[in-house]
């Protein structure tokens, strides 16, 4: 309803803006895919800028200047003064020949996990990470995924394991299962139209 321009009773302006901003961020992801542009740190900041547009313009697309803690997590993201260096390391990892040889689902899951572990933004790092995951999937011909509500706890637990033990296997498996479900959904929709 929000996307159709209708306000929903009992919802805050922030919640409305989050929906509209997410739509705009998805369109930006689709544009990057259509133009076959290589991923850059600039695009990551622009994705985040779209996520926070009108919600927190001072921090939209800007690396955080404060320490953050993730509720319920043992992992503590790096101090603010380390973020630029960590993001540069992420981009070097992403651009390596070995990384490019990884299966797109593995590469996308790891990109997401490493990015969200850095937690470069004061707010919206998780949403931006999920958009980056979908960008990586879509660039390689996969449909976008949504982490289902029933998988949310497993999502956080497997990310925690990736961050604290540097073991990405369970998170990659979770993402692969979501990709499989998404593919099944698309295939069933195609079969219904035939």
UniProtKB/TrEMBL annotation:
> In which residues is ATP bound?
123-130, 155-156
Q: Tell me which residues make up the Fido domain.
A: 39-177
Residues spanning the membrane: none
What positions does UniProt annotate as the active site of this protein? Answer: 119
Instruction: Tell me which domain of life the UniProt entry assigns to the organism this sequence originates from.
Output: Bacteria
GO MF annotation list: ATP binding
Keywords, sorted A to Z = ATP-binding, Nucleotide-binding
Q: Which PROSITE patterns match?
A: FIDO
Name the PANTHER family for this protein: FIDO DOMAIN-CONTAINING PROTEIN (PTHR13504:SF38), FIDO DOMAIN-CONTAINING PROTEIN DDB_G0283145 (PTHR13504)
Specify the protein name: Fic/DOC family protein
**Protein source organism:** Evansella caseinilytica
């Amino acid at each position: 309803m929000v996307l159709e321009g209708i306000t929903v009773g009992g919802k805050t302006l922030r919640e409305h803006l989050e929906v509209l901003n997410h739509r705009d961020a998805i369109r930006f992801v689709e544009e990057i895919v259509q133009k076959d542009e290589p991923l850059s740190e600039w695009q990551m900041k622009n994705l985040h800028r779209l996520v926070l547009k009108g919600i927190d313009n001072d921090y939209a697309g800007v690396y955080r200047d404060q320490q953050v803690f993730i509720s319920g997590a043992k992992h503590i993201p790096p101090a603010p003064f380390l973020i630029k260096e960590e993001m540069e390391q992420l981009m070097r990892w992403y651009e390596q020949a070995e990384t490019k040889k990884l299966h797109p689902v593995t590469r996308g899951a790891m990109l997401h996990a490493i990015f969200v572990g850095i937690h470069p933004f004061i707010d919206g790092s998780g949403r931006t990470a999920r958009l980056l995951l979908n960008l990586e999937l879509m660039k390689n011909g996969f449909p976008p995924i949504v982490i289902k509500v029933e998988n949310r706890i497993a999502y956080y637990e497997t990310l925690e394991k990736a961050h604290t033990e540097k073991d990405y296997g369970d998170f990659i498996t979770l993402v692969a299962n979501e990709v499989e479900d998404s593919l099944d959904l698309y295939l069933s929709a195609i079969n219904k139209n035939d």
